[in-house]
């Protein structure tokens, strides 16, 4: 009976020691994977997105021969064409309706012409 009482604390101590060593080794392995990461921080893996590629800037709308054209991100486009993952579903005097190509069932979004654009000024100077 005395023998069992002595084994229990020893067994618990051994299990605790092994667990701490395993956690310490795992922690060191994680820290070695990225030497610039601050200690104690959990690394999150996020898909990198480029916001500049996804920005939509409508600078002008023009109607020529009953067809509307829009200048979006410095490109002349018409209804049905795509830019940065967005398809043009409609063009009006004041803006453009775009639908995300990754969400075909979604409602098109309206992007207004950027009033701060210097496109009109450039067009008049030429």
What does this structure look like?
The model has no long low-confidence stretch (mean pLDDT 75). By secondary structure, this protein is an alpha+beta fold. The strands form 2 sheets. Strands 4-5-6-7 form a 4-stranded antiparallel β-sheet, with no helix packed on it. It has a 3-stranded antiparallel β-sheet with strand order 1-2-3, with no helix packed on it. The termini are far apart. It is 34% helix and 28% strand. The chain contains 3 helices and 7 strands. The protein has 2 domains: 1-44, no CATH class; 51-125. A hairpin with a 2-residue loop joins strand 1 and strand 2 (67-72).
Written as H for each helix and E for each strand, in order along the chain, the element string is HHEEEEEEEH
What profile does the largest beta sheet have?
Answer: 4 strands, antiparallel
Which strand-content bin applies to the residues? 25-35%
Query: Would you report the number of β strands?
Result: 7
Radius of gyration over alpha carbons?
31 Å
Percent helix among the residues?
A: 25-40%
The average pLDDT value, as a whole number, equals 75
- Tally of separate domains: 2
Structural class based on helices, strands and sheet pairing: alpha+beta
Uncertain segments of ≥5 residues (pLDDT<50)?
A: none
User: What strand order characterises the main sheet?
Assistant: 4-5-6-7
Please report the distance between the alpha carbons of the first and last residues.
102 Å
Q: What is the approximate shape?
A: rod-shaped
Helix count from the secondary structure assignment: 3
Oligomer: single chain
Keywords: Signal
Signal peptide: 1-29
